[in-house]
Amino acid sequence: MATDERNFRSGYLEKVGCRGVGDTNKLENLLKEKLVDQGKLKQFCIRFAVPVRHRSLLWCSLLNIHPMYTNNLQYVMTQRKAVYMDLLRALKMMRLVDEAKMPKSRIFYAMWLLETKRLQLGCNISTAEDSFIAIAETLLKLFDNEVEIYWMAKKFYEITEDIEKDLPKLLALTNSLLEKNNQELFRYLETNNLLQKLPLSKWYVTCFAGVLNETALARVWDKIIGGSFQILAFVTYKTLSKLEKTIYKCTDIESLLKCIDTQAKNSQEMSDVIVSKSIEMWQSSEFFYKSF
């Protein structure tokens, strides 16, 4: 099978932006076509590691932010920017956002609420909690173009709405992976009522935004944008398995979440290992083949 994430070395090479010349050329040729073939781009996301320098363009193509006909790109992005500026201007006129004081992710959230007619009178953007904000925060750490980031956040949020519908299946798959592959850890989590208290639903509808290091997480999002939601369950399994020794010292959900936050989110190296192992396991499963 032609994959580039079968082992830690390939994961490391992808992390630092080194890719096989053949794969990179293949993607570049796909992105240069006058009529973008989304089917082939999705297959690339599923089968290969996405080069860092092409990720923004690839995601914009698959999320329908860029037009299918590349000749129309400049016109479409001019319109996208106009919508962005109109929303931002309206919020400033209503004095609902302050660019000097408010985080950009929350400004994007307010813009999205206004655009989708969900902005309610008295809504406090500064204290609101929504998965859209977590997604936007992750994207802001990955990319620089704020207009594209806003549109990415909108489109990726739509994907998470579909993921939310699949939550029962994802939760069942998570339990199955733990029980079949690490019975000792599964029993410990069950006995201490930790598995039931893990915020898995939140992790899944945010696609681990704010849980794992953003640079590593981008590789998981490549697969999600390519059409595979099941990889989220594999990320949970590998996260818990990788932190197994420390987890056995945790007897309550607070200490467990602190362990994950300290050792996974705040460590790019640990997040890279978790993501690489998750993708490797997922690619060896039946769900990888069902993605085509």
Automatic annotation (TrEMBL):
Primary location class: cytoplasm
Single annotated GO MF: GTPase activator activity
GO terms under biological process: negative regulation of TOR signaling
Pfam families (UniProt xref): RabGAP-TBC
Keywords: Cytoplasm, Cytoplasmic vesicle, GTPase activation, Lysosome, Membrane
Keyword flag Translocase: no
Presence of the UniProt keyword Mitochondrion in the record: no
Gene3D superfamilies on file: Ypt/Rab-GAP domain of gyp1p, domain 1, Ypt/Rab-GAP domain of gyp1p, domain 2, Ypt/Rab-GAP domain of gyp1p, domain 3
InterPro entries per UniProt: Rab-GAP-TBC_dom (IPR000195), Rab-GAP_TBC_sf (IPR035969), TBC1D7 (IPR039842), TBC1D7_dom2 (IPR043039)
Cell compartments where the protein resides: Cytoplasm, Cytosol; Cytoplasmic vesicle; Lysosome membrane
An example Gene Ontology CC term for this record: cytoplasmic vesicle
Role: Non-catalytic component of the TSC-TBC complex, a multiprotein complex that acts as a negative regulator of the canonical mTORC1 complex, an evolutionarily conserved central nutrient sensor that stimulates anabolic reactions and macromolecule biosynthesis to promote cellular biomass generation and growth. The TSC-TBC complex acts as a GTPase-activating protein (GAP) for the small GTPase RHEB, a direct activator of the protein kinase activity of mTORC1.
Protein name as it appears in the record: TBC1 domain family member 7
